[in-house]
Predict the structure.
Amino acid sequence: MMRIAGGRSLGPWVMVAVVGCAEPPAGTDPSSTGSTTEASSSDGADGTAAEPPPTACSEPTDVVGAPRTIGEAVAFIEQLPRPLTLDCFLERLERPLAINATFSTVSLQPAVGSASPRVFLFIDDLILSVAVAGDGRQLLEFGELVSQTQSIKGELEFPIEGPLATVDAMERVLDATGTKCRLCHGSETPSDAYAMAFVSDALRFREDVERVSLPDLRAEYEACDPAAEPERCARLDALFAFGEVVDAEFPPELQTIYDYE
């Protein structure tokens, strides 16, 4: 059973949704942000340790992190070399990495089919979202749980060249009256957790019809041809090639975007 900040118990599920028409969760309990242990390599098909590809970071680093809040994620990013790519950030996340993927396009960070899905990564209260390909490929979206049904939303665009503050992630999602997230996530209200932050409903996608299974996504990684699709393969490498990846489940009681209709 996992417990989130403040001692709340989420049982076997962890839930959230991120920016846009997003969806939410279940996670792992890795160690603290910014640890300086070496990331392990993933296993090959024969069970032996596979050699990871060259780092996507602009210079080698031993920093590994498991941020559990948006603030911790920004602090972790500040430890990584500049210019910072999203692939570098992903490869430096502590393993095992708990993920769930969808081919749903109902999002401001849409999937590009089942071969290039939208991928959710779960670390306690923090759920990150990335796209394997497409218009949202350079965006890192955040959902930080503040209750069992609502989360604070944020977003960063990569590459990142200079210093970063937590408010930058909040400002990216603002519009004239709140955030662009409210287009899909209801019950939006200001939050005092961060400057310029808003909280709104957490959602899930329809797993029975929109999910991309972990074995299927791993097969896309193993079959990817970097000569033909260098950016897509680099994103899959950043997710799979630097240590263990495990399945995460969404709680069935969460609403989907279609439940608002």
Q: What stands out?
A: The radius of gyration is 17 Å. The helical segments are 70-77, 86-91, 166-171, 207-210, 214-223, 230-240.
